[in-house]
Amino acid sequence: MSWGDILEAAGTALGAYSSYKEGSDRKKAAKAEEKEAKKKELDALRRGVEEADRQAKRKRALISQQRATMGASGVVVDSGTFSDVLADTEESGREDEDTIWQNALRESWGWKQAAKQAGRAASSAYSSGLIGGLGTLASGTYKYGEKRNWNWW
User: Fold this and answer.
1) Higher pLDDT residue, 31 or 148?
2) For residue 2, is it left (φ>0), alpha (ψ between -120 and 50) or beta?
3) Residue bearing the bigger pLDDT, 115 or 151
4) d(Cα 51, Cα 45) in Å, to the nearest integer?
5) What pLDDT is attached to residue 1?
6) Exposed, middle or buried by CB within 10 Å (0-12, 13-18, 19+), for 122?
7) C-beta separation of 89 from 56 below 8 A
8) How far apart are CA 16 and CA 87, in angstroms?
9) E strand spans, the chain
10) What pLDDT, in 10s, does the model give residues 61-111?
11) For a Cys staple, 115 with which of 37, 39, 63, 104, CB 3.0–4.6 Å?
């Protein structure tokens, strides 16, 4: 075995390791992205709950203010137009809460999909690095065998 053969084998091994390492590093990066996306998914839900709760408090405060204003005028609050105003405020507030919650769910779903995609990318990166490394080894071995007139079949 000559120095040329040794260097060629070393180059092949280094190329194979480089392919494997690149795939491994891309997998690690994709796993970090997946973890971050999962955090953002949960954060979107948490923020949605908090904002919907704030909206519910604003709605209750507005209704209380309306009741106090109506009551101060000496009118029976639970009848007629005043009752309709309170019901409209309640319904409008509930719609706002639902919209906030639906938007949070949509954002959370988007982050969930991003996490899934990152997980698939991690798996793919590792596989492609491994296959690339094995391909480099096979190719280098084949080239070496051709130079040595190995009979493959």
Assistant:
1) 31
2) beta
3) 115
4) 10
5) 67
6) buried
7) no
8) 71
9) none
10) 999 999 888 888 877 767 778 888 889 999 999 999 999 999 999 999 999
11) 37
C-alpha torsion sign, points 47, 53, 59, 64: negative
Q: What pLDDT does 153 receive? A: 57
The answer to whether the beta carbons of residues 46 and 153 sit under 8 Å apart is no
Residues 50, 38: Cα–Cα separation, whole Å: 19
Residues 6 or more apart in contact with residue 5 via CB below 8 angstroms: 144
Q: What is the pTM of this model?
A: 0.71
| CA angle, residues 11, 15, 21, in degrees to nearest 5 | 140
Burial class (CB in 10 A: 0-12, 13-18, 19+), 90: middle
Token duo for residue 105: 């769910």
Alpha-carbon distance of 144 to 58, in angstroms, equals 77
Place of tokens 């209750």: 60
* Residue 14: predicted pLDDT: 86
Sequential DSSP letters for 37-60:
HHHHHHHHHHHHHHHHHHHHHHHH
41-73 per-position pLDDT tens digit: 999 999 999 999 999 999 999 999 998 888 888
Mean residue pLDDT of the chain comes to 89
